[in-house]
Design brief:
This protein has 333 residues and is α/β, with parallel strands linked by helices. The protein contains 6 helices and 14 strands.
């Protein structure tokens, strides 16, 4: 099951108490203080790791706890520190405090990590307080309290290129044709229930990651349908391929559908409307497709490609257009 948002509770380990102890051996009736320090409590660490592609592991365990530190002992023996608990999440996960709603860290790349709950400090044994004026200290300190937090983990898919468009526009079919991804494909809306990723190899030296974002509908920016769940995943894409179906089954106009998706992107996040975009009319094997493509190009005043994921027509041109846009984005950044 694909999970891209989950709320968990994390609790660090408490620090071990310091020890109150004096050396007591035969022939040494007044040995000095030898109480050891307590061990540090374990922390809860969230780390982005390659090979993890969703948050299902975190979803199946709501409470994550690290081990407490051990108490200090006599003979200057320090307590063992508690082991850290590591939660592995996919790159692209945003760690957010659930109560105060602020971002702890955006784990964009594999290896990025954040201490979600810090372990308590170990207490000091009485040997720590020995001085030239206090030869037999009886004070010691308790271990530090454990940190407790409620967190929200949100996964935002990281892809170079995002496929956007109305449901049933042909996004999943195109992804399957261009890459080795195997999304669910059927002739009805909302077949795709979660983002799908695939790597597209253009030639021996060039490739890019393509994301199939589930179809958007009007009102998605307000959470209608699964709008907010879907829109979150387009935030990190650098280039959009906007697919327009030439003959929608709901009898809507292709131009209206294009404008509706653009409006949803802009209302969700203003800068999404300024991202580089390649427009393509799908299903170019249909008789009406070429007329719709020319009509869209005339109304929008820009190039509109015609492609077919079934016959392969126009796909080479589409991929090279994507590479040009990615190169331009890299140069500008």
């Amino acid at each position: 099951m694909f999970v891209d948002r989950v709320q968990i509770e994390v609790e660090a380990g408490r620090g071990g108490d310091g020890c109150l102890s004096f050396r007591r051996e035969r022939f040494i009736p007044r040995g000095g203080p030898d109480g050891g320090d307590g061990g540090r409590g374990g922390s809860v660490v969230i780390r982005a790791s390659e090979g993890v592609d969703h948050l299902a592991v975190a979803a199946h365990r709501k409470h994550w706890r690290a081990r407490a530190g051990s108490a200090g002992q006599g003979n200057n023996r320090h307590g063992r520190s508690g082991e850290d608990t590591v939660i592995e999440v996919p790159p692209g996960t945003v760690v957010r405090d659930a109560e105060d709603d602020y971002v702890l860290k955006d784990l964009k790349q594999a290896g990025d990590s954040v201490i979600a709950a810090k372990g308590g400090k170990g207490g000091k044994g009485n040997a720590h307080f020995k001085s030239s004026t206090n030869r037999a200290p009886r004070q010691f300190t308790r271990g530090g309290d454990a940190e407790l937090r409620r967190l929200v983990l949100e996964l935002k898919v990281i892809a170079d290129v995002g496929l956007v468009g109305k449901p049933n526009a042909g996004k999943s079919t195109l992804l399957a044709r261009l890459s080795r991804a195997k999304p669910a494909i059927a002739d009805y809306p909302f077949t795709t229930k979660r983002p799908q990723l695939g790597r597209v190899d253009v030639d021996r030296d060039r490739s890019f990651v393509l994301a199939d974002i589930p179809g958007l509908i009007e009102g998605a920016h307000q959470g209608i349908g699964l709008g907010l769940e879907f829109l979150r995943h387009v935030e990190r894409t650098r280039v959009f391929i906007h697919l327009v179906e030439p003959t929608p089954s709901d009898q809507t106009m292709p131009l209206d559908n294009y404008r509706a998706i653009r409006s949803e992107l802009a209302q969700y996040q203003e800068d999404l409307a300024t991202r580089p975009e390649i427009i393509a009319v799908t299903k170019s094997e249909l008789p009406e497709a070429e007329h719709i493509r020319m009509e869209l190009a005339e109304h929008l005043g820009r190039e509109v490609l015609g492609i077919s994921a079934v016959t392969g027509a126009g796909l080479d041109r589409l991929m090279h257009a994507v590479l040009r846009q990615l190169d331009q984005v890299s140069t500008e950044s």
